[in-house]
Amino acid sequence: MDPQTAMRRLWSGMIPIELQLAPADAIELLASAVLPEPFQTFYVLVPRVSYLPFVTAKIKERWLDPMLALSGVRSVVDDRVSIKESDIWFEYNGQPLRWHYPAGLLYDMLVSDVARGEAELPWSLTIHVRKFPGEKLIQGPSTQHMRDMFMAMIKEADFIRNGSTKRVMDLAKSDQMQLLDGLETHSYEKYFAIHAIIVPAHDSRMTPTASTAKPKSQLPKAIPVRFYMLPASGPDDAKDGPAQTASESSSNVAMRQAVDITKFHLSQIPMPLMRAPPANSEQTTVADAFRLCYEISDPASNAFVSNCVCLCQGISIPWETPISWLADSLFYADCFLHLVVVAAS
Amino acid sequence: MSGMAAGSAAAGTPGAAVVAGTAQAAADQPKKVVVRFRSTGNAPILKKSVYKISSAQRFQALILFLRKELGYKSSEPLFVYVNSAFSPAPDEIVNNLARCFGLDGQLTINYATTPAWG
């Protein structure tokens, strides 16, 4: 599969999400934990590369607002029953979801069965419209806030790739808007027309000798890579795991397998395309990248290769894959490679 | 089957132990990052502009530290950037920022009272 085809297929990857309103919020809004028919559950498809704040407006408009209106809650302007977009948050297995992470990344981190191929579909989430957990999530999610944070991330990626944010900063305002609109409305054509300006295609499969013939500007200095590694849990972890935050909404979910998102260790460095001398004619592999990120100096140390799974875009990636191959097609919309490392079953 | 998987992870297979140990070492090391604060526009200049900050902190902690040094209340606007270029998410780890965007072991933080970049 050529990178173009892979990019298009990844872009069209969607996660079906099944939403329930948190019972406590339902009681506050409707004086009943049971929602009226046909509003009990809401289903929505979220693109893996997109972000939750880009779907909250639709969820509110098509589900929550009509439900309030039809439930005889007349004064929608009344503060006690109105719903603000910036108060909306999502929960899975008792844990608030970080809204500034791509949806696909959240799914790879939290739905532990991904590594075993028994995915949870649809992904069952609880939506909250009250008591925003400000100590666990960045305050004030909104479409605009998400757009701002996304631009910051894409500038970070540009800086790692090229040593400056020039490519992004040089975009015309209308191009920036098109990039963001393309992401928000999930339009491949709109988004990739601008993406191609920021990240010009290069052939990473070429040999180092061939690379010297190419203009140097075509090759990135480094690849933006971020690892999310879940250390093996100790026997004590069960006590203070996510179970304590389990609300009434998730008490029927088996908590023993819940992955605690706060336990992930995030590490990123600008990832060189080639190995360090003397092996500098070889491409950096995912295993090399992991060693570099976690400062494992012994190149022979590779127990993690057989005991851990590396997920990128929901796909289990062989550890010997060159990073530059992944960078060609498995990047998220913010131009980062987000790699999730969990223990293999 | 899934029970066994959870069990082996909890017991710590050799590989998982290596991974866990590495992460633990990285997290526990009392490493410091040299941070240089530079004011932009009308923002006041700090008496001391270079600090050593724990690398395990989040960017949010660095913003709060800067606010404290400036004597800024949380209601007063303050825009904080890395390398005159972008504002990282508040939950990004200072160590990762230093490794990606630091120069000669120093991370440059720019701050302004009005939006300055991007």
Automatic annotation (TrEMBL), chain A:
It comes from the Eukaryota. Keywords: Autophagy, Isopeptide bond, Membrane, Transport, Ubl conjugation. The keyword Nucleotidyltransferase does not apply. Residues 10-129 form the Autophagy protein ATG5 UblA domain. It is found in: Preautophagosomal structure membrane. It is a peripheral membrane protein. Residues 223-341 form the Autophagy protein ATG5 UblB domain. GO terms for molecular function: Atg8-family ligase activity. Its main location: membrane. It holds the Pfam family ATG5_UblB. Residues 144-200 form the Autophagy protein ATG5 alpha-helical bundle region domain. InterPro entries: Atg5 (IPR007239), ATG5_HBR (IPR048940), Atg5_HR (IPR042526), ATG5_UblA (IPR048939), Atg5_UblA_dom_sf (IPR042527), ATG5_UblB (IPR048318). GO terms for cellular component: Atg12-Atg5-Atg16 complex; autophagosome; mitochondria-associated endoplasmic reticulum membrane contact site; phagophore; phagophore assembly site membrane. GO terms for biological process: autophagy of mitochondrion; cellular response to nitrogen starvation; piecemeal microautophagy of the nucleus. Belongs to the ATG5 family. Involved in cytoplasm to vacuole transport (Cvt) and autophagic vesicle formation. Conjugated with ATG12. This is Autophagy protein 5. It comes from Coemansia biformis. The lineage of its organism: Eukaryota, Fungi, Fungi incertae sedis, Zoopagomycota, Kickxellomycotina. The gene is ATG5.
Automatic annotation (TrEMBL), chain B:
One of its GO terms (molecular function) is Atg8-family ligase activity. Ubiquitin-like protein involved in cytoplasm to vacuole transport (Cvt), autophagy vesicles formation, mitophagy, and nucleophagy. It is a peripheral membrane protein. It is found in: Preautophagosomal structure membrane. Keywords: Autophagy, Isopeptide bond, Membrane, Protein transport, Transport, Ubl conjugation pathway. Its main location: membrane. This is Ubiquitin-like protein ATG12. GO terms for cellular component: Atg12-Atg5-Atg16 complex; autophagosome membrane; phagophore assembly site membrane. Belongs to the ATG12 family. It holds the Pfam family APG12. GO terms for biological process: autophagosome assembly; autophagosome maturation; autophagy of mitochondrion; glycophagy; piecemeal microautophagy of the nucleus; protein transport. Forms a conjugate with ATG5. It comes from Coemansia biformis. It comes from the Eukaryota. InterPro entries: Atg12, Ubiquitin-like_domsf.
